[in-house]
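The following record pairs a protein chain with its ligand, 6-O-phosphono-alpha-D-glucopyranose.
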Amino acid sequence: MTTVAESPHAGRLRALASEMLAERRLIIASNRGPVEFALDEDGTPAGTRGSGGLVTALSAVARYAELTWIASAMTDGDRVIARREGPSRFRGPIPEEQMYLLFVEHQKAAYNRYYNVFSNPLLWFIQHYMWNTPRTPNINLADYEAWDEGYVPVNRAFADSIVREVAGDPLAPYVMAQDYQLYLVPGFVRESLPGAIIQHFVHIPWPDPRYWELLPNHMRLAIFESLAAADFVGLQTSRDTRNFLHSCEAILPGADIDYRRSSVWYKGRLTNVRAYPISIDVPTVEDLARSQEVEFYEKRLAPLLGDLNILRVDRMEPSKNIVRGFRAFELLLRRHPELRGRVNFLAFLVPSRQEIALYQTYTDDVFEIVDGINDQYGDEEWQPVRVFHENNYTQAIAAMKHYDVLLVNPVIDGMNLVSKEGPLVNGRGGVLILSEAAGSHEQLGQHAISVATADVEGTERALFEALTMGPDARSTRAAAIGQQIRNYDIAAWLESQFRDLRSLA
Ligand code: G6P
């Protein structure tokens, strides 16, 4: 894709990146890579964009800085690529020139323990406050094994591959490790590369120390000690940084916390704790929204649109609160017969983590409520809800151009990039309904209609208010949100991190 527009931050960011990279290399490590490969019928791997907020945001980095991106080989196609390219580099198709993608291949059993038992659901559910603590979780031998034989060795393999990759470089690299799957990477890398400049960015919420105490002490301590070996810990919001500092105080014995400077001293090292609210690559998303591919999907979707359209775009994920969203819609149709036949709900739900039983039952719950609504209110001519259960980002962008209401009501969310993509591409002055517990609420809440996570009644009222809002109020809000997103785009997110990293070099 050729990009016409540029972020206002692009010039400064490129200058900063080239200063940084003159001395040290930049390594990004994340569990999911920017592309994943599926094998076609004759066994040839074909790449598609990875799903989720992390990939959406980080794919932009390569536009500004040359980097090596290390990710897990997650599919059979990824493994074919990993073996074919060996320890050398694969040039990723997004955005070609400056990125080398290096897959780390793990043993399947170890990866399964790391991904399907420890990271998701255990850690993910802790960080999203999703356990029902009187009953769950029940941490048992399988979790202990998932730690010892999954999470620890997979993190070790990532660190080893970073160390191998930079062997022979005159100076240790900048390492930007991503998210909850890789909490042990800073500690392992620090052991081998004491001079590395390490940042760990956490894309998901950081809970209160009490909730961390659900995790056995040795696991929790290892996670916190490793993060305290990083130079910077980046989080999404100021709320998360406060929780991080509080939890270091509670969990790391002898740690010295400076709340004013937002830093942690532990075992003779200083870790700076910063909020860097993640964002989207504005010019790329806008270009895509204007592209022929998107136009193709717009034509396909046109017959499914009603007079009024409510939209949601999410991974099929319990923390996204999809079921409560449909409960509120059902209530809306019950209370407002005048809306029946006029308002359509289009839900773009990307399949996610289907190996995990909790995700399977959640998926079943979503389809059950959708079928219920369609049976009760739909007829041959009109189906109130349409679910698109597939990973098709282009189609989702096409749909986002046409909503009247974008429903983003997660139980809790690190940032939520849909709440930034939607208002950027939408052409109808659509209204954003936003959960107070989404990270993006700190930036966008003022111009959205806020809802409390569990408040089905309030969500129904918010839907009605949004659907009946006058055009002036709609467009004032939409313009304010669009401006916010343009001012603080992904380049601004990166620039603030690069500045911090550079300050230590
Ligand atoms: C969230 C997490 C990411 C993760 C993504 C998709 O955005 O913060 O780390 O990559 O979800 O999840 P998945 O398990 O499919 O990679």
